[in-house]
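Students often ask what a holo structure prediction actually looks like on paper. The answer is less mysterious than it sounds. You provide the chain, you provide the ligand, and the output is a string of discrete structure tokens encoding the 3D arrangement of the protein together with flavin mononucleotide.
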Amino acid sequence: MLDTAHRGQTWPVSIAPMMDRTDRHYRYCMRQITRHTLLYTEMITTAALLHGDRNKLLGFSEAEKPLALQLGGDDPAHLATCARLAEDWGYDEVNLNVGCPSDRVQHGHFGACLMAQPALVARCVAAMRQATTLPVTVKHRIGIDDLDRYEDMANFVHTVAQAGCDRFVVHARKAVLQGLRPRENRTVPPLRYDDVYRLKADFPTLHIEINGGITTLLQATAHLQYVDGAMLGRAAYDHPYLFAAADALCFGDAALPHTRRQMLDAILSYLECWMAQGLPPYRIVRHLLNLFAYQRAARLWKRALSECTWAPETAVAALRGAIGLVPDEVLDAQPQTAEHAIVF
Ligand SMILES: Cc1cc2nc3c(=O)[nH]c(=O)nc-3n(C[C@H](O)[C@H](O)[C@H](O)COP(=O)(O)O)c2cc1C
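The corresponding structure tokens follow.
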């Protein structure tokens, strides 16, 4: 039976799709830190899903939910098939990427360049909505190249909303499609949060989430005065334990989050389970490198993890050894009350 527990729900905070980062193991790690934050897959192209190994591309563990699948593509029929797959596999949402500026993606004619074709995106959304009962959402930029006036974005959102999309995640930077690398497209064009606030004011019935440059939950909640949700990307990877405050601060859940020690205990069992299936341990351990960011144990921890060879026979002992290097007061630190737990 399909799990529809999260249907119709919206989230004040989410962790962004990130290629090569937000794989199932990262998501499992983050789920030990926050129970409620919406998690995304990295972008999966329709071509990969239609022709590739679906078990590998779509597999996730129930513990990762609520979970959104992000798709990359521009063919309404292909996207519809993939949206149906998302539902069959038990995802909670399907999201269309209209923000990626990479050359590879541009050659495939999807991602950010689709902002120039709102009618095509509307057709894609309409086809996806016909194929699934899941919420269909769009993640886009505030603009691309010369198509960067507020009115251009408003026109894009208006057109796509008419096809039935009522949730948009807006990366508050335009994308420069020629001349900037993807990394530069996340730093060079200036952030224009006011454009996203204005979008919400002009389209009050749409759910508008803001993304780009948010580094603390305090900043995230400040945005919530103007928009419905905030999505964090790099901060969630560079400082994952930041999210230990999310359940209390953003979801009103007073239950204490896991300490880092409790989180690592869960990961040790998870690691053993996956190694038994032949997974190289570093595929999981790499996501732990930043667990002690901003703590005095940070450098020690990173060095300990980086210097291990991560052979399957010794991985559990190596991880236990690295944990043993961290002072107890850091491992067992209880996140502060919500008011204080903005950065720790
Ligand atoms: C390594 C990396 C990979 C990314 N991959 C994707 C992706 O697959 N899909 C997507 O929509 N955005 C992707 N992004 C963009 C992020 O989702 C987000 O929009 C961007 O990093 C800005 O948010 P931030 O300032 O909170 O990091 C990626 C970002 C990074 C750093």
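The first helix runs from residue 24 to 31.
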